[in-house]
Amino acid sequence: MKSTPKGPSSPARTTSTNRPAKSPAATAVRARNSRATQDFFRGVIQEMRRVTWPTREEWVAATILTVVLVVGVGIFTYLVDLLFGAIFSFLTGGAR
Q1: Distances from the Cα of 58 to the Cαs of 62, 66, 68, 69, in angstroms?
Q2: Are residues 35 and 59 located together in one domain of the fold?
């Protein structure tokens, strides 16, 4: 069962909106911004087509090198931390 709004408190349904009409200048600005956005994305796509992408072998080699270097730097940092911890422990009489 549908209930229908009754009384003066219910808003009347109209086909027109209560918004003011857009000025031609605002419409032109919106069109210009839209065109600029489209041009930007077209330029991005063109640049992405010009990129020389690495082969799978190059990509795998670079990934392995990166992982090895990160692990190496981590081990180096750990060892230096141990060294400085031992030095400061010796200088302060074993207090940590």
Answers
A1: 6, 12, 15, 16
A2: no
Residue type, 19: R
Global pTM?
0.50
Q: Which domain holds residue 31?
A: 23-52
Sequence-distant (6+) residues with CB within 8 A of 96 are 85, 88, 89
Residues 6+ apart with CB under 8 A from 95: 89
Distance of CA 46 to the CA centre of its chain: 21
Distances (CA, A) of 14 to 2, 3, 11, 17, 18: 20, 19, 9, 8, 10
pLDDT 10s digits, 31-42: 888 999 999 999
